[in-house]
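stage 2 :: seqdesign
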């Protein structure tokens, strides 16, 4: 009887694997039929779209989260079903990318609306408007991204990236409106207001640059736009935060001795990064994997020190850093004399094989991967906050360096090595061990949880062809969530 059960389980596993591969192949063929070129990969990474909604729902169920967090989690449920419908329709025909999906958007919006109304006691019409805007904007943006940015994303990567945009905008907009109505009385409300207004200003600057005709794009014009936007930003801060807004910001960052030391440490790491880029660019020698991982280490030191020392300040720095990154990327592709060519020279030297599309996504993914646990994790003292640092900054870096140096035995159907995977796991456990040894980290069963999470992360890294910087932190958060009972 046991043998029959094992054979039956094996049969169903093979049947599921066959179905998934068939679905993936149909989608690939349908995309090619309508002239859509995704990032070169043997897989579309369709499974990735479940990660973000699953993380948000898990935290909502197991933690005492705020109404805002619960609202965002229930919005992600609507996006989950919209992704499911999109995959189903895309497996039948690629024409879904050229057509509207109004019925599907409404149906998925209603699911989120009922969840928000039932569990957060929000007004029904307000909930419906928010969910409709969120789901419909996601659907339109996903199609726009796949059509207009060829070879930049796989389908799975595109869904994860586009999911995060309406969810973040919805959360930030609600928080922004609340700050206008009720004022800013808490530290995190202060931080979130600063981050949202800075990101909004950055988007305005980038939009203004690309609205201009190419012949009018020059350094002086960009400088004028930046100055005008900075003045508007100061006016916003004056209205929301009060007349002493600049003094309050300076006092928050620089008048605390610990924060000042942390800021100076980050500044030192930034200067080292710029120096390394300048030296490598001047030699015009293509950076190898080990050289590129130098930035993983430097970025990880920034986030590790910030998470362990001051999470609110790290949150503010993450928002500012992300704004700077997308602004620099916009300057690179804006065809502005001298500025764009200089940035392009650095990109050519440091670009990854996966940067085959319109944008330099690898550095953006690295930053987002390190920062996303800060945004997604509701508990400030949780081990989950280190998911990005451990998975990408430590594990993936160790796997790449060890695999390139010592790797001989490869996984089946993969160019990753067993040696690299082993170093991936051991390096993450070693970092957590040293943090506990020096009493920097105080989390029950941290080593056991890290061993489990790092093993899951390392196996996914070894097998998946999706961008590690984006996917591995989310997988690691899920693995830490699965082991939360140990804490």
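stage 2 :: out
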């Amino acid at each position: 009887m046991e043998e029959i059960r094992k054979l039956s389980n094996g049969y169903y596993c093979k049947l599921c694997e066959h179905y998934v591969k068939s679905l993936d192949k149909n989608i690939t063929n349908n995309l090619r039929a309508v002239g859509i070129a995704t990032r070169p990969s043997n897989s579309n990474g369709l499974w990735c779209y479940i990660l973000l909604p699953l993380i948000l729902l898990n935290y909502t169920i197991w933690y005492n989260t705020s109404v805002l967090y619960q609202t965002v989690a229930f919005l992600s449920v609507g996006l989950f079903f919209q992704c499911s419908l999109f995959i189903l329709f895309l497996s039948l025909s690629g024409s879904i990318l050229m057509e509207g999906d109004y019925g599907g958007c409404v149906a998925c919006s209603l699911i989120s609306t009922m969840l928000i109304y039932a569990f957060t006691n929000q007004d029904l019409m307000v909930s419906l408007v928010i969910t409709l805007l969120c789901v419909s904007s996601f659907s339109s943006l996903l199609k726009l991204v796949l059509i207009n940015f060829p070879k930049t994303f796989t389908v799975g990567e595109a869904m994860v990236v586009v999911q995060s945009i309406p969810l973040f905008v919805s959360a930030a907009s609600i928080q922004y409106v609340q700050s206008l109505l009720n004022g800013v009385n808490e530290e995190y409300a202060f931080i979130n207001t600063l981050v949202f207004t800075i990101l909004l200003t950055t988007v305005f600057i980038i939009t203004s640059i690309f609205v201009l005709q190419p012949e009018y794009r020059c350094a002086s014009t960009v400088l004028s736009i930046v100055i005008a936007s900075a003045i508007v930003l100061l006016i916003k801060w004056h209205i929301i935060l009060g007349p002493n807004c600049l003094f309050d910001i300076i006092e928050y960052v620089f008048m605390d001795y610990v924060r000042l030391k942390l800021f100076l440490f980050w500044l030192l790491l930034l200067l080292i990064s710029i120096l390394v880029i300048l030296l490598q660019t001047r030699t015009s020698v293509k950076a190898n994997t080990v050289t590129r991982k130098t930035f993983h280490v430097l970025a990880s030191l920034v986030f590790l020190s910030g998470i362990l020392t001051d999470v609110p300040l790290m949150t503010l720095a993450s928002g500012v850093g992300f704004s700077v990154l997308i602004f620099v990327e916009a300057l690179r592709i804006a065809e502005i004399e001298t500025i764009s060519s200089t940035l392009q020279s650095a990109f050519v030297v440091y670009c990854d094989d996966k940067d085959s599309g319109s944008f330099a996504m690898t550095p953006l993914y690295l930053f987002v991967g390190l920062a996303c646990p800060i945004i997604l994790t509701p508990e400030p003292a949780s081990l989950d906050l280190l998911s990005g640092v451990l998975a990408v900054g430590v594990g993936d870096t160790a796997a790449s360096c060890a695999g390139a140096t010592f790797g001989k035995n490869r996984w089946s159907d993969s160019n990753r090595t067993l040696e690299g995977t082993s170093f991936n796991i051991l390096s993450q456990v070693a970092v957590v061990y040293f943090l506990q040894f020096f009493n920097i980290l105080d989390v029950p069963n941290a080593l056991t949880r890290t061993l489990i999470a790092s093993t899951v992360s390392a196996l996914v890294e070894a097998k998946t062809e999706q961008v590690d910087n984006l996917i591995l932190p989310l997988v690691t958060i899920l693995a830490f969530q699965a082991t939360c009972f140990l804490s």
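stage 3 :: structure notes
- The mean pLDDT is 87.
- DSSP finds 18 helices and no strands in the chain.
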